[in-house]
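Chain X:
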Amino acid sequence: MTLELSAAALAASLPVSTGGVQAGYGVSLTDLSGFNDALRSAQARGGQGELQARHAHQVGPAVEALFQPLEYINGEAAELRVAADAAAAAGQQMTPGEMVMLTVRCQEFMFHCQLTSNIANRASDGLQQLFRQQS
């Protein structure tokens, strides 16, 4: 069955009022039908027009510690964006000193990204080796 044929079959099986559907690679009609049935039964039980997302569980301190470097990098990227937007909004050319400082901050940001990536890769390699030794 080709992708076009399965997409056409999927579109033909949907009610007209849905307005379309987006699905990832490898989705089957059985998956979509089961999800649709589960959604209808949940809405019927709850009596609500739409379902609200809830957290499955609270995030532990170990997970928070894992994401701290990523949050730092995200904050650093936001600061760089604000600085670049301010320089562009000024409507004047940047002075050579400002250009050097912005370049240095960008290089520092890239260093932090590479360092975090390297640490994550080494941790992943260590865990893989540990699991190989355990099996």
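Chain Y:
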Amino acid sequence: MIQFSDIQKSFNGRVVLKGISGTFKPGDTSLIIGGSGTGKSVLLKCLIGLIKPDNGKVQYDGRDFWNSDEDIRKDIRREMGVLFQGGALFDSKTVTENVRFPLEMLTQMSESEKDDRVNVCLTRVGLEQAAKRMPSEISGGMKKRVGIARAIVMNPKYLFCDEPNSGLDPLTSIKIDELIKEITDEYNITTCIITHDMNSVLEIGDKVVFLYKGDKLWEGDSNTVLSSEITELNEFVFASKRLREMKR
């Protein structure tokens, strides 16, 4: 479980997060949504340890991330898997080498144990046949699946995904959503996703948090997001529909 309370962050006097609190539970896909510049990515970075908040607390199963010593923070980081926007693969490494990288850096596994773990993860995302390919030789959707395989190779308790459907066609986006949801359910992972994609919200949103100008204006789930009385949320949710109507 991830619990965060009163997360505040400013840059050069500009307030980005105004005191955000929430709880993400194991086995749930929790989505953080909102327009550009609302603080979604900054909140994610505060949660995973890339940016230190000015105030507030982040707890992983009761362990206070920012107020613990470095050894505890390292332990928590080892339990995280992160899928970065765009995949963030190493262009000079094969698919196998990309997935294997965290094992090389963070574990004392034997070579055969690393091989076995990489094979399991590539099979889980349906890429065992692409193991020897370079990133330049695979599609955008396959790169995202490689990123997912790398994110789960350490058998994480917590999975963070930053815009996993960015740059993908609708059908591939659906497949990526389904894969993330399946992995979350299968391994009982606490999953947090940053997204603009309302299809993702409606299909896999066990919990949805809506940020607006650094505030948390609403939280609920995929069953209630369409019936909110929050004006700003409705504008975000139905924006694409209105744009289509304007083009007619």
